[in-house]
Structures are given as structure tokens and as C-alpha cells.
Design brief:
This protein has 117 residues and is of the alpha+beta class. The chain has helices at 15-23, 28-39, 41-56, 93-97; strands at 8-13, 85-90.
Length: 117
């Protein structure tokens, strides 16, 4: 949640898996190599584009810390298939805040997705 800019970001598909790894200081280069080895070169480029979009949105920032950049945790849960790296951005927080998380929920998507009535 970007409280300054008034945006909410939802990480869906494999994006939710990789954002945790990136926040935990796994370097992008290490992630790229691991993805290329596990899923192939095409998926590596998708990951690079994903990271670039996170940098552009200022969700991630580049680190100058030389100690950062470790490999993903040995307990990192690699998805069987990479799948889509989807980041849904909501720029009108007021409409999300007014949604009722108990009643206005699609049971398959959760909150804040409004159930189609």
C-alpha cells in the first residue's frame, strides 16, 4: 500500500511469490539466473520486465548495500510453473476503503475484489 501516492498494489499469480524473495534482499541477478535455470530464458525476460515495472512504480528501489544479494532461502517455494507475474494497481483508494470486506467479496478472489451482482 502506497499511502503517500494513494495506491494499493495486489500481487497475483507468481508475483506474490517473487515479491517476498525480492523484499528479503535476494538480488535481481541471482533471481534472474535461478529463473533461467528453472524455467528457461523466456521466463527470465518476463521476470526482468516484472522487476523493471516494480522499479518504475517505486515499489522496489535499487540497493547500494554490498551485503544484499543473497540467494533465495533454501526453503523458498518455487512454483511448479512460473505463470503470470501480475501486479494489479488501484489508484482510487476511496472506492476500496468503502468496500465491505465481509459482504462485498468474491469467495474465489477474496477482498478487495467486488463480487459481481
Amino acid at each position: 500500500m502506497d499511502l503517500v501516492g494513494g495506491r494499493l498494489y495486489l500481487f497475483e499469480g507468481s508475483a506474490s511469490t517473487f515479491i517476498e524473495s525480492l523484499i528479503a534482499s535476494t538480488s535481481v541477478a541471482v533471481g534472474e539466473r535461478a529463473i533461467a535455470e528453472k524455467y528457461g530464458e523466456h521466463q527470465r525476460q518476463i521476470f526482468i520486465d516484472f522487476v523493471q515495472s516494480l522499479l518504475e512504480k517505486k515499489i522496489l528501489t535499487e540497493s547500494t548495500d554490498d551485503s544484499a544479494g543473497g540467494a533465495p532461502s533454501p526453503h523458498f517455494a518455487w512454483p511448479e510453473m512460473l505463470g503470470e507475474l501480475v501486479v494489479t494497481e488501484y489508484d482510487d483508494m476511496s472506492s476500496i476503503i468503502t468496500m465491505d470486506p465481509i459482504h462485498d467479496v468474491d469467495p474465489n478472489k477474496g477482498w478487495p475484489f467486488r463480487e459481481d451482482l
